[in-house]
Amino acid sequence: MGDNDTRIELTGLAGVPESALSQALVATLPTNQAPAPWECRCSALLWLGRGGRAAASVLPSALAGSPALVTLGAFVRYTDTPVGAYDEVLGIVGSRTGLRPWGNVAFMSVDSQTSLVGGRTNWAMPKTLARFDGELADGQLITGSSSDEPSWTVSATPRIKGPSLPLKVKGNARQQFADGRVGDSLLTFNGRIRPALVTVGVSSSGPLPTWLRPGLHLGAFVEEATFTLGEPTFRG
């Protein structure tokens, strides 16, 4: 554990109000136990939402003015990572620079302190702690809820609508670090997905539902996948 005043890599990240860390929580957090890159195995539930002004408003200052083309919400159940198994809920704002797409993780919460520290330290992903209930399965409800203030809850129920399909894809996660630098990290994904309709619930004492919107969404059920998130490279 470290002095709160010296852990700027954890407390100095830009993020939505739902990503705030309390001083009491920071005081309990371990040091970073797993530097980048990470290779992980997981199943997941993904859904797409529209972008627009509300989504653009949650981008950090270094990315301000970028268009919010789409949002992506997800529940992820990790079975193998450098910090062990854990669950995650997240919200991403998708944008582009010229023709090059990228995503900014504006909201992310997990049930693992070591994952929280690794995510913030390695990639400036504003992870907080959450509680999870339910299963990732067709017709089943899964819920993530805040462990601290502000209070929020995200839930999702998928209806699988098609066969299993292979998917290999690469993406770019673009995050603003505590010192103001912007880092790009390559995500490489290899898995099997099934198309789904996803009924999403989002409630919060903060603005989360204004951009990670509740309702019925097009999405995908990830049966199994392996992905690698690389060490960030810094622009400029």
From TrEMBL:
<protein>
    <recommendedName>
        <fullName>Acetoacetate decarboxylase</fullName>
    </recommendedName>
</protein>
<dbReference type="Pfam" id="PF06314">
    <property type="entry name" value="ADC"/>
</dbReference>
<dbReference type="InterPro" id="IPR023375">
    <property type="entry name" value="ADC_dom_sf"/>
</dbReference>
<dbReference type="InterPro" id="IPR010451">
    <property type="entry name" value="Acetoacetate_decarboxylase"/>
</dbReference>
<dbReference type="GO" id="GO:0016829">
    <property type="term" value="F:lyase activity"/>
</dbReference>
